[in-house]
Amino acid sequence: MEVIKFAVLPGDYIGPEVMAEALRVLGHAATAAGLKLEYQHADVGGAGIDNHGKALPDSTLEICRAADAILFGSVGGPKWEKLPPKEQPERAALLPLRKAFNLFANIRPGLLYSDLRDASPLKTERIPNGIDIVCIRELTGGIYFGAKSTITLENGEQQATDTMVYKTSEIERIAEVAAVTARARGKKVCSVDKANVLETSVLWRRTVTAYFAKHHPDLALSHMYVDNAAMQLARDPNQFDVLFTENMFGDILSDEMAVICGSLGMMSSASLGTDKNRFGKPYGLFEPAGGTAPDIAGKGIANPCAQILSAALMLRYSFGQDALATKIEAAVRKTVTVDGIRTGDIAFGKPVVGSKAMADAIIANL
Ligand code: IPM
Ligand code: MN
Fold it and tell me: Can you name the residues that pair with 220 across neighbouring β-strands?
């Protein structure tokens, strides 16, 4: 029996609740497919701070290193908000994890089932069939990781600097991820930059253009300035198929995409690394796009779908189990649409169930 080994980092508030449901779904799916799951839990975020004095404890890193992928919950919350920004669970856990495993490619499906159109803040006539796009964000470069400083000038005034840096190789490897993603979909890619102002964007656009001309001439590549892309996403999201962009533009656009796709409770994400795991697939971190939802934590009512769909992405990208991933995705879709089983965030008049009942229904549909 093939063994799949991953680290489980549930995090804080609803993190552990939805993680438990995702692991149940994953367990059923794997058993049916003749796979054995081997996973180890580790503290991260606020749980890391409380139990080990650090958002990303060394012991957690070790467990991640021994695994082939990380299934991540979500971190942060009011309990740790008074800490200095650098020690906050989100930043002090996620950024070092991204660096430690070279997780350079963040892939976020922007999927809204047409049955859930009402969850979107967009007018339904703009999205008659829901939304189906993908946002790909460069995750280990740019202004997030360039040189930073805060200094005091001679006149006593303070000045802070962040630097946006990109190398050709960093741009090419994310362009490749966008191309591969587009090839499996509509063969259409829109690269987003600010080439009318930024040098990094001039290089980005030139590199992307040359890369596609050389390696993917059959794909339809277009370019768009980021301010326009933000408007176009809100106006007509389905004009895009695969959107891809640098780290900070992607941070903002992927959240915009998440909100127009309705509930954060349905949004999954994959962050893929440069390193290959024991399966010859990218080492990756898989997490829901939403947060820890402290307001509903402990009540058993959080939507577990985003965590379950993130587990499906893990099977697809880090373990090469595409068919099994598709099966889980189909089960989630059927549960929510055909069966109309809904947690509170996506109820719209339908009866509301809790996290566990939602996962049970998905398992029944597997
Ligand atoms: C995200 C988050 C992180 C980011 C923060 C918490 C550092 O907003 O994953 O998008 O900005 O990348
Ligand atoms: Mn963000």
Answer: 188
